[in-house]
Amino acid sequence: MAKSRPRKRHAAAIGAAALLVAVLGVAAVRAAAGPTEAGGVPLRDLAAEQGVRIGAAVNPYLLEDAPDYRALVAEQYGSVTAQNVMKWNTLQPERGEYDFSTADTLTAFADEHDQAMRGHTLLWHQQNPEWLAEGDFGPEELRSIMRDHIDTVVGEHFAGRVYAWDVINEPFRDSGGELRPNLWLDTLGADYIAEALHTAHEADPDARLYINEFNVEGRNPKSDALYELAASLLEQGAPLHGIGLQSHFHAGTVPEDMVANMRRFTDLGLEVTVTELDISVEVPADEEELRVQARDYRTVVENCLRVSGCTGITVWGIGDADSWIPSWFPGRGAALPFDEDYAPKPAYGSLQEALGG
Ligand code: G3I
Prior knowledge:
Blueprint (H helix, E strand, L loop, with lengths): L15 H18 L9 H8 L2 E6 L1 H6 L1 H10 L2 E4 L5 H4 L9 H12 L3 E8 L6 H4 L5 H19 L6 E6 L13 H6 L3 H12 L4 E6 L7 H15 L6 E4 L2 E3 L7 H9 L4 E12 L4 H20 L3 E6 L9 H4 L3 E2 L12 H9 L3
Parallel strand pairs: 1-2, 1-9, 2-3, 3-4, 4-5, 5-6, 6-8, 7-8, 8-9
Antiparallel strand pairs: 8-10
Ligand G3I binds next to loops.
């Protein structure tokens, strides 16, 4: 079943009675997984009252192996993004051979716990299978491979179960305003972006289609270029619905102009979503760093709530032990709202408060 989009705060507040019914409706399933030690009203319920979703990037193997992890996902988050298992190397490891088994574990969990699913991701320069990355295909063949993947994944398999797709992930270079050379750009030219959006829209006309990027949370040359790209896609009639601001921050670096930056995208008629939030500190973390981190988590949520087209926030993982940060940035870590034992950190309290708890 398609999950309905969260109601906009300016459209209507969710009635207390309706919320109570919804909360009671899933309480039994969630209680079976918990309750956890997080305490207070779960983030997902607070977010629903604000008309936004709070979600998490989830690893289905940990859902199976780590009971505390599973319980927190069920209890705290109203939206689930596949941290890895909807990427191309998992879904189509060999040409024409699709494997939806682990992704389906995740969608089944999400259905059981009344969670919406974000799809991540269709076209990216990483986590592609060797046959695709090394295939040296010409434009015609690559275009047909791209269409087959999107039709099969977005249309045949997940239509109606995934409410939003990161169709294009990280199309720009790490910094600056140039498109990133990758398999798609190099072979199909810049039109690969519009073409992928059109194909995804035909495959599932109800899905919200996103470009997802990092280092674009404040105004800078990269977000300026993303803005120009989004405006020109809309002008050409491409079905682009939203911009994902990944939001991988170092503590103390949330841009002051994040709200203004989000608003220029919503002024184009797009929605924005914070899609991969984590806020890393130097490890081992001291109290002061965790305080700054907590303040930053609060700021990001408040920023989203100040922008009427911001649909919500997804954090990139559950507990500090599952985060991608330490292996990519040695010396940094402790980036998530729960610690290595899944106990709540000050950041968790900040999220609750920012969401009105
Ligand atoms: O699956 C293999 C496993 O078989 C092998 O034994 C193991 C040994 O290292 O590696 C496993 O693959 C790892 C994979 O995650 C699944 O756990 C890769 O090495 C590892 O590089 C990969 O990292 C992921 C990364 O994307 C890849 O670029 C992270 O978990 C994932 O959190 C991260 O997510 C990205 C978003 O998709 C896009 N935005 C940035 C974000 C952070 O990098």
